[in-house]
Structure formats: structure tokens, C-alpha cells
Design brief:
Elongation Factor Tu (Ef-tu), domain 3, globular, Gyrase A, domain 2, 6-stranded antiparallel beta barrel, Alpha-Beta Plaits
């Protein structure tokens, strides 16, 4: 259990408190989990625009002639496909093929990359980069100096465009620009996010983030902009079937088991790539699937998945009552024999075996 004394604090915490946010320990930080209520915040992002403070995330910069070689060897995706201004979803794997973390790789130019890692893994990831930096690339941990806001929703671009001369509609998905925003220079504007609702993520120095926050809310007022907590971030990402470290993925789960074969480029060498090549040849024995409840009940992480006769063969990794769909959904690992779409499975909820069925993910499809 995290203690208050041990928690780190984001720069905007005083603003979250002023706005009445419920602050909870999350990944070693004091973070806003809700403001007005999870369902309301979730639907604000799906229909209008909301702002998440995700400044707890970590940012590492890898620089110099050896930067490409280090990032290419550390990550599962193929960094050679990146041009300056592009972003790539990827993962670190340990020597057993397990996932150390999932991350974003930003190609600033061919000798500079920014790696964005999960808050709970900053120290572990940094140590891994240091340990593997055998060719002495220049590495810098900026996690304590950068803030990150995620402005998400179909009206996000309308609000943000008021604050920058950069044409945001010309930045494709998983691309970014560095330039002027809200009167500040050298701000990273990234067409990325974790909600499936569209929008941008903005990286800025801590000393500038409060002015940027207020500028965004002024610009978005006419579009019904609201602050959004991490509770809605979780339900939004779950509706999209996105993995969350510590739930769907961890140090003992391989990318192939987690359905992340698309970011695992086995034609290039990286840590434990030989193990994953063999796993692909043999075939995985378990697979991450999405499911929706047929019987009434809400699945939660750790609930058993089985055959309804008391035989357990899997476990729920994430589950919720979907605010967008009005039904209970979840993800979990099951043996390959039960992973086919339409398969009947049972979730143990309060000692009852409740029926569910395997469905294709994402659960939610953006109507636009």
C-alpha cells in the first residue's frame, strides 16, 4: 500500500484540489482519479473534450550517433521505420521475453529519440536503459522536469487550434510537431492518446504547464471542456481494448500472448527476440481476449475465468461497466481453445459462475 509520505506530486496538483478532484495514490504519485464522476467524465471525452493531467509519465531522451542502435536493440518495434516527427508504440522485453514496459518512441531526428514510459516503471526502465547502454549513447531522464497533458475528444482539435499556428489537422495519427503553443516555444504537440476519442498530447516544462492548462480551458470553454481523472482514462482505454501495464501486460507476459505481435518485429534482433521467434513457431498456449458479460455482473481484475463447473483456466486482467455501451466488459487470458470469438466462458463473481462470451476488440467503435 502506497503511503502519502512516499508519494510524488505533479506540478498542477493544487489546481486539481481547487477543482474538487479526488486525489489518490497511483503509480507512486498523488493523482486525480475523478472530479465530477467517472461516467460523466468518460462521456465528456467521447462526445466533446476533456483534459487529463498525465504528468506522472516518464520521459527519457536518447541522443547521439549511438541513439538509434540503442533504441532499436531495446524495443520490439522497428525503429528504422521512423522518420523525424513520427511516433511508434513499442515495448521493452526482458531476457525471458516478458514485457518490462510498453512505451512510445518519438523520433525527434535520427540521432535523438524520446521514450515515454509508464510512471510505475520509471526507475526500472531507466535502470534497464542504463544497463543496456553498452555503446555509450547520451541518455537523459527528464521525467521530473516535463509535464504532460492529454486533451482528448472529438472537439479537442477545435479548442487547441486557437492556441497554435501549427495546422493540427495536418498532423496524422501517431505523428507530432514541435513548435509554438499558448505563447511558448518548443512545445511537443502529439496526435496520440489512450482513449480512442481523438485528440493531442502536449509535453511542456513544468514551469510553463500552469499557464498552458489555463489557456487550454479558456480556448475550450465554448466546447464544454472539462478536467478528467484517471478513472475515466481507464474505462476509455478498456473500451478500446488497450493494454495497461500491471493488468494485461507484465514481466512474465510476452508480446505475442498479449496480442502485441503487430509491434513485435521478429526480423530484427532485440532482447530475447530469439525466444519470441521460437514462441511464434510453436504457438502461444494462452491469449488475451476481450469478453462481454451475458449474465448480470461486473468483472474485475483477478476474478477467475473457467468452465462454469469450478475448473479455472484463466484470469480477468481488467473489467468494468462500460459507460459508452451500457454493458459489462472485460479482458483476460484464456487457453487458445477458449480464445475464439463467440466462445462461452464463465467469470467467478461473488462465488457465482456468471456467463460471458469472447468478443472482438475494440469493444467500442467511434461513430465518426
Amino acid at each position: 500500500m502506497e503511503t502519502t509520505e512516499a508519494l510524488k506530486h505533479v506540478t498542477l496538483e493544487h489546481i486539481h484540489q481547487q477543482l474538487g478532484a479526488k486525489i489518490v495514490p497511483f503509480a507512486g504519485y498523488a493523482m486525480p482519479v475523478t472530479y465530477e464522476g467517472l461516467n460523466q467524465e468518460h462521456l465528456t471525452v467521447r462526445t466533446a473534450v476533456g483534459v487529463f493531467d498525465v504528468s506522472h509519465m516518464g520521459e527519457f531522451f536518447i541522443k547521439g550517433p549511438q541513439a538509434f542502435e540503442l533504441v532499436q536493440r531495446l524495443t520490439t518495434n522497428d525503429v528504422s521505420l521512423l522518420n523525424p516527427g513520427r511516433v511508434q508504440y513499442s515495448a521493452f522485453t526482458n531476457m525471458n521475453g516478458g514485457i518490462i514496459d510498453d512505451l512510445l518512441v518519438y523520433c525527434i531526428h535520427q540521432e535523438e529519440y524520446m521514450l515515454v514510459v509508464n510512471a510505475s516503471n520509471i526507475e526500472k526502465d531507466w535502470n534497464w536503459v542504463v544497463e543496456n547502454n553498452v555503446h555509450q549513447a547520451k541518455i537523459e531522464n527528464h521525467s521530473d522536469h516535463l509535464s504532460l497533458l492529454a486533451i482528448q475528444g472529438p472537439k479537442a482539435i477545435l479548442a487547441l487550434q486557437k492556441l497554435t499556428p501549427i495546422n493540427l489537422s495536418e498532423i496524422p495519427y501517431y505523428h507530432f510537431k514541435i513548435g509554438e503553443f499558448a505563447g511558448f516555444q518548443n512545445i511537443i504537440l502529439s496526435n496520440t492518446g489512450y482513449t480512442g476519442a481523438g485528440g493531442f498530447e502536449i509535453y511542456a516544462p513544468n514551469k510553463q504547464i500552469e499557464q498552458i492548462w489555463h489557456a487550454i480551458f479558456n480556448a475550450g470553454a465554448e466546447f464544454g471542456i472539462k478536467p478528467i481523472g484517471l478513472g475515466a482514462r481507464d474505462t476509455l482505454r478498456l473500451e478500446m481494448g488497450f493494454c495497461l501495464y500491471g493488468h494485461e501486460i507484465n514481466d512474465t507476459t510476452t508480446p505475442l500472448e498479449a496480442g502485441l505481435g503487430w509491434i513485435t518485429k521478429l526480423a530484427k534482433p532485440f532482447n530475447a527476440s530469439d525466444i519470441l521467434v521460437k514462441q511464434k513457431q510453436i504457438g502461444v498456449t494462452k491469449k488475451l481476449v476481450g469478453f462481454e458479460m451475458i449474465d448480470r455482473g461486473i468483472p474485475r481484475q483477478g476474478y477467475a475465468i473457467g468452465d462454469g463447473q469450478g475448473n479455472v483456466y484463466g484470469e480477468v486482467t481488467s473489467g468494468t461497466q462500460s459507460p459508452s455501451l451500457g454493458k459489462a466488459i472485460g479482458m483476460g487470458y484464456v487457453p487458445i481453445a477458449y480464445a475464439k470469438e463467440g466462445s462461452e466462458i464463465f467469470i467467478t463473481i461473488r462465488d457465482k459462475f456468471l456467463k460471458a462470451k469472447v468478443v472482438k476488440i475494440p469493444f467500442y467503435t467511434n461513430p465518426s
